[in-house]
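All the exercises in this workshop are built on plain-text protein records. A record pairs a protein's sequence with a compact description of its fold. Backbone structure tokens are a discrete shorthand for how the chain folds in space. Once this layout is familiar, the rest of the handout is easier to follow. As an example, a complete record with its sequence and its structure tokens follows.
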Amino acid sequence: MRLSRRTLLQSSVAAASPAAAKSPTRLPNIVFLLSDDHSKPDVGCYGNPAIRTPNLDRIAANGMRFERAYVTSPQCSPNRSSIFTGCAPHTTATSRLHTSLPPWETTIIDALKERGYFTSILKKHHQGAHFEGRLDFYHGEIDFAKFFAALPERRPFFLQVGFTDPHRPYRKGSYPVRHDPKSVVVPPFLPDTGKVREDLADYYDAIARLDAQTGELFRELERRGLMENTMVVFTGDNGMPFPRAKGTLYEAGINVPLLVWWPGHTKAGVVNRSLVAHVDLPATWLEVAGVAKPAKMQGQSMLGLIQGAEYRERECVFAERNWHDNFDPTRTVVFGRYKLVYNMNPTRGYRPIKDLRQSPTWESIVEEYDASRLEPKHQTLFEPSRPLWEMYDLERDPEERRNLAGDPEKAGLFEELKVRLSNWMHETFDFLPPPYRNYPARRGTRRIYYMP
């Protein structure tokens, strides 16, 4: 669907779903728990036998666990802007790290506030200081007592808890649980060395701290009789702070945990394998609150999926990477079991972002490489260039090592994915040039086709 600039800048907060029939005091509360640099496998309920996350596991046990939830960017502030707006970062001029959300962009906060919600954030939001003025309540630390003291009686609330765990740097001795480096699960994209294991144990420790804080919040909600009317959503803002994860469009960078628990609405222990995206979260919350989705919002509500009702499955999810502390313009589309990555600066090889370069893991990788002990698959981190196109079968090749972009048997699929990616880039006003244009070619020239 093509939208004019005027239409894109308009928003509607009119009531539009059965939830709107509820009185304001009975509107469901929304608690949004957002970890910082956290890949999908690193929660107990996702099958990690070493990490201790009993409170996050409780969400999955009582609700729904998503296996294929994707961020819009493997970077902090760009992806967080998508959660507030329901749009790709390039649509809202927030594609660069540390770019504040423009004041003219309508957000989930504005819509919920107009609906009567008490809107609040604890700790990290990464959208600029002016963003705090949109909220009813903001506090720079995770202090649940202060939040509940400020909460008006019987008013529905939206509470985002912006953890800074498990972001680097790690400070030993400051976590409630210590994990044994010998027991950690080393991802296949990292070498198994002592330093890597120590680093992963610190990462697990940081996750355990946010899990403990989640338990504190649950106890407060239960003590105040609020849990039964509260939707709890937990996810990560992007992948783990390790090489070939954060800052990349590989699965460890963009596939994150997503857990949803809404008593009376979610069945217990459901595992969902549908493709979903972070741009879908605000549309979901608006439907829960009985508010119409703004025309500009690109995501779709997952409420039907969460409640086991009618739901239109996504065919694709998309993500982008731009400037972090280096410029690496890349785009990706995930379509079923396949992924296409478009490297727009292929003459440059992999460059880890700053906090990764300063990590014990990267230090160990460099040491192993210099000593000629690094496995061939890990040596790709040091190659001077990359392919323009990468295409992977995520089912048969979960490590994303066998590039199918040049496989003649996959030529049709390769073209389809390029068209789908081009369409998304056109429709969302990407500032980078798509592979294909979407207007008719001149007579006598090769036709560039457009797939709706």
